[in-house]
């Protein structure tokens, strides 16, 4: 058996940012970045137009877009949807009452009208947490709420 010497070149690890991809961010880092941005823009945390209201809007709209994408089976503007018989058909603005106040969201629609969103259902004006809080504030006990 013959020994062979092989020279190995040391390779430095490549950060995801070097590949054109954003580096992973922890939840704590993300929150710190959002709060710092709000401070620099003199944005309130709560209230009309505040950080929490804006975040709630973006989270709800993102979830709704995810739901319609799952329903249709393809991403918005994807060529796969051409001629499929059902596709994205814009959306309708609606105001939803949330724990952080009223939030206007754009609810997506499909051409066939078969999309039934779950995160914010059709004709729903309040999110569940707000409804339950309203019952308790109105004097209903949790036992009464469970009975329906």
TrEMBL record:
The segment annotated Disordered runs over 77-148
Q: Which Pfam families match?
A: Transposase_mut (PF00872)
- UniProt entry tagged with the keyword DNA-binding: yes
One annotated GO molecular function is: transposase activity
Q: Which domain of life is it from?
A: Bacteria
The alphabetical list of record keywords is: DNA recombination, DNA-binding, Transposable element, Transposition
User: Mind telling me which InterPro entries this protein's record contains?
Assistant: Transposase_mutator (IPR001207)
A Gene Ontology biological process noted in the UniProt record is: DNA transposition
Reply yes or no: does the keyword S-adenosyl-L-methionine apply: no
Q: Polar residues composition bias: which ranges?
A: 139-148
Report the sequence similarity comment from the record: Belongs to the transposase mutator family.
Which function does this protein serve?
A: Required for the transposition of the insertion element.
Q: Which protein is depicted?
A: Mutator family transposase
Originating organism: Streptomyces mirabilis
